[in-house]
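Exercise 7b. Backbone tokens:
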């Protein structure tokens, strides 16, 4: 009987893992599970959609033929709600449980929304996926003021792109350089997001109210592994793996930005995640 391998994720590390497996095992039954509705795409290029340089098709990295040619069953728009290492199966939202012999967690990192009252209102978004970028793109034409909360190059590039569209932008953080049309706001973090169902304004620590129709959070990320909370899989700022990318559970592996080596943090970024995934897939087949 073919070995059943399930990969949680559908980005660089997950694709690398599937390719690594197929180099050594042509018969294993591989299933990939992703919350997104897209085939694998190049995440580092997402902002190109927002500034008009790229179209969605330009981001596709592995299209439908990849999954077909590699004998991969792909579940899109499927959320993993839990993992049972005792029963060797995943609990999936809206689907029957999925059984596995070997599990690879390659779910990456995600932007973390702060614990602020009203953060779940429509118009509040953390930039995690192409769907988030498309949401921003669709709502910009009717946005009068956009607030960007965060730090780092992605947050600042978002501010630059949106301001270039003649939309008012307020940046809650510290800019590396002055950006035309972007107002920098320091020392007044948001304590509440106001509005009924939709965002209408935010309240700051000095009690000042600032109007807004979009609030974007970018820069505060953590490993995407909430579905492992009821397991015995060791984690410390990420899933802890050994030199062959295996966790403390012999049949559970991890790759990419969701994990970290025992001694030092695994490399971050697209290329590092892909290489980590390939290594994981190959090691799984050799041990």
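Sequence design result:
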């Amino acid at each position: 009987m073919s070995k059943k391998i399930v990969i949680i994720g559908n980005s660089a590390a997950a694709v690398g893992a599937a390719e690594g497996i197929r180099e050594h095992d042509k018969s294993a039954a591989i299933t990939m599970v992703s919350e997104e509705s897209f085939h694998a795409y190049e995440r580092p290029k997402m902002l190109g959609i927002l500034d008009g340089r790229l179209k969605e098709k330009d981001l596709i990295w592995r299209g439908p033929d990849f999954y077909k040619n590699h004998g991969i069953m792909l579940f899109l728009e499927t959320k993993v709600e839990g993992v049972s290492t005792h029963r060797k199966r995943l609990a999936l939202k809206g689907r029957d449980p999925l059984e596995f012999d070997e599990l690879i967690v390659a779910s990456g990192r995600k932007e973390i929304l702060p614990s602020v009252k009203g953060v779940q209102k429509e118009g509040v978004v953390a930039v995690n996926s192409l769907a988030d970028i498309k949401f921003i793109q669709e709502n910009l034409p009717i946005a009068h003021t956009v607030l960007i909360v965060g730090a780092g190059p992605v947050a600042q590039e978002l501010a630059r792109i949106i301001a270039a569209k003649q939309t008012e932008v307020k940046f809650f953080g510290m800019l590396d350089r002055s950006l035309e049309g972007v107002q920098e706001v320091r020392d007044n973090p948001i304590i509440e997001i106001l509005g009924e169902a939709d965002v209408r304004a935010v309240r700051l620590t000095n009690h000042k109210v600032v109007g807004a129709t979009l609030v974007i959070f970018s820069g505060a990320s953590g490993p995407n592994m909430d579905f492992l909370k009821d397991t015995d899989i060791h984690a410390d700022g990420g899933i802890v793996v050994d030199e062959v990318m295996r966790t403390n559970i012999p049949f559970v592996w991890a790759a990419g930005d969701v994990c970290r080596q025992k001694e030092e943090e695994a490399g971050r970024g697209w290329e590092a995640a892909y290489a980590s995934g390939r290594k994981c897939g190959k090691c799984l087949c050799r041990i």
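Instructor comment: The first strand starts at residue 4 and ends at 8. The two ends are 18 Å apart (CA to CA).
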